[in-house]
Amino acid sequence: MIALSEDFKMLVSQLPDLDLEAYLKAVEEPLPECVRLNTLKFREEDVKEFMSRRGWRLEPLAWVRHGYRVLEAPVTNLGDSIEHMLGLIYIQGPVSMLPVEVLDVRAGDRCLDLCAAPGSKSTQMAQLVGLDGVVVANDVSSKRVKALSFNLQRWGAVNSIVTLTDGRLFSRWAAGLFYRVLVDAPCSSLGVVSKDWSVLKRYRYNHSRRLQPLQAALLESGYRCLKPGGVIVYSTCTIHPLENEAVISRFLERHPEARLEEVRPAGLRWRRPLEEFGGERFSPEVEKCFKCYPYDNGGEGFFIAKIRRE
Amino acid sequence: MARIMGRDSFSTLSRFLRVNDLPSQLVFTEKGKKVRCVTHTALETATRLKGVVTMGVYAAKKMGEDYYLSIEGSQLLGPYLEGGVVEVSMNEAENWMRGAPIERSGLESGIAVVKMGWLFLGSGRVSRDGRIYPLIPKERMISHRNGKG
Questions:
Q1: Please, what's the b/e burial string for B44-68 (b: 16 or more CB within 10 A of its CB; e: otherwise)?
Q2: Interface list for B 29-48 with A (CB within 8 A)
């Protein structure tokens, strides 16, 4: 039986589209095991052939290049496999691979991952930009930057730079420098509870309320780092509208020149973002964002917004 | 402050290296005993940023007169080596990744790079008893229980 805080129960009562029973059933299950193959260091066909010989069975994920669901593996713990240790694969949740795919990163792009640790999405960007592009992977925590550097090393990301700064200040020295920016913001993590059920017991409304200004400031700073015509993706792994729809709606109010683009990935179930929450009515544009609950795809709950700077 | 190595000095990383065949985007930087590999674009971008912690990947480390290659260094430079590479079987590769030495006869002492087919597995020190001892950090080794229990 998963314990729920009073604040979480209150949140559920305010989300008309959330099926609590389905949500709890979904988060009781571990996340499906998925991996991304490293095309920065190796040829995808070689990696697949090598893994197949070692007893792996993989099924491609429809919404992400180089992403696969693991049907069978020669080891119980994927993190203890030769493939992981040598940087042939990156173990990552299936929906968590989507934000970078939505960012539409192309070879040669100069990209910024503003809240990068532990580096899953930075490594994904690194393989898509190739040797002529560059990924700047930033994080504010020196402890988390160690994990970030370790993962970029394992991935062979010769095209990466790790920086340790407060993402809210990044635009002071990097305004207009990037074609692509990812703000995978710190959040209340209510979409990835499978990893840690205690999140639901510990959840407090104040947590979301305190995170929102930080998320808004990170989005603002990331947006300023964009070149005209560039794209920013804002994503969270939470289901709370205060950290999702509200952040985007208020951003659009401040930036009438910004253009929100529709996010409708193939192969994933999504739902319409809320039109209002807690008495706040959101911009109708917000419906273009992607939102899913953990039970929609048997994976993580996510919110993703794609914004182009005109 | 890291020093950018000139292309003519890349051969110090390995006397077997076909320097001219390396991808033109790559640069090596040296700081103390450590050598990192980074792209020109990343190096140029870094000059415009604050709070830079690292660039590219750690590729090699000086050990006496020789350089040993990290796993990534071996994967980057391995395809351009004309010698000093030892081919291993899958079984030997698994043991190597657990930290066990590989037995080979007739090797010169120094540093050898290990590979299995196209996959480079880092480098090791060749001892006088003919064994190659892996120079792989513990956090990159697989456990002895590795497998399906």
A1: ebbeebebbbbbbbbbbbeeeebbb
A2: 37-39, 41-42, 45-46, 48
